[in-house]
Amino acid sequence: MKFDPSTSIHDYLVFGEFGDVNPSITDSSTFTFMSPKRMEEIFDHEIEGCFLYSRHWNPINKFLANALARLEDTECAQVTASGMGAISCTVLDICKSGDEIVSSRTVYGGTYALFKNFLPKLGITVRFVDLKDLEAVRSAITPKTRLIYGESISNPLLEVTDIPGLSEIAKEKGILLVIDNTFSPMVISPKRLGADIVIHSMTKFINGTSDCVAGCICATHDFINTLTDINSGATMLLGPVLDSYRAASILKNLHSLHIRVKKHSENAMFLAEEFEKLGVKVFYPGLRSNPDHELLNKLMNDGFGYGGMLAIDAGDYESAGKLMTRMQEEKVGYLAVSLGYFKTLFSSPGHSTSSEIPEEEQKKMGLSAGLVRFSIGLDNDITIAFERIKKCMKEIN
Ligand code: PLP
Q1: Lower CB density within 10 Å: C or N end of the chain?
Q2: Buried b (16+ CB within 10 A) or exposed e, 82-114
């Protein structure tokens, strides 16, 4: 049966303490026990509905985590204070010194820097490969490899990852497949395609209002229990806990995610087609001409479009800069990093969100200096933005 992540999230009613339709915000770091014995028991094992200390779990974070598990159709989830908190805790929980990771070479710059510069300090080696080349992935795996890491739709080139193909390799080798689904919530459900762990930077589409930084890890009960283990869990001991006020506001925003994703996708598709007609080099997997179009058609859920992210090649860095400056002046949107906001955001990844990747590597992966990445907004009439962009393009040429 086809999976509908939106129905999955909404098919749940909250009955708060006073019949509240939103769960109460847990404004407490610590929780009382009626007896020392009960406190001792929870140190031993998790007790349903019983809370100890908010770095471990608190009720509103649990509500949000449960909704995210329903979004990604996983058994369980954990929320974190940032997307990087989710990524670092996941890999540090799985890997120890001497272990290896096989990662896509086109990942978010912060992830790339964590893998390239930070993990080696802990004795963890990361081999970067082109995930499109399944044979290269297979041959990069050694007996020390613990996981394959990729993004469902990659940042910033919007390449689509063959999750079922990678899952087959991971299963054959007895390792885990970890997928960052930040660019495509609702559009792609990585766990249903064979991923073991699904990560989001909730800072982006899931929250959708660019007012906070947050992340999540969706996985099995066993993995989340490992992460939250009082004696050895990465989220428990490294401590990137999400504040309960934020958890409450993200949970409310999550309930409009399906409508927002549809509109982001509709607007992005319109712009991608118009850019293509103008002869601009455009990266958008919704276009028939895109090399990953057929793959995405096979992987995607029905009804949410091809996502709200697109990129164009403005030629060179200087032209990209001029175009972005003019677009901001013309109120197309903001010259800003990040994505998933209700206004259009644009940035030049080579000099911002992907600048951690050395220039030589950027060239190899096809990330040109003139690339402009757009997170398309929720404009009611996107033709207005397009007319303004066209005007800016004419002016700089
Ligand atoms: N994953 C992707 C694909 C991202 O684009 C980002 C941030 O831009 C992150 C992870 C990191 O998330 P955060 O900024 O919430 O730590």
Answers
A1: N
A2: bbbbbbbbbbbbbbeeebbbbbbbbbbbbbbbb
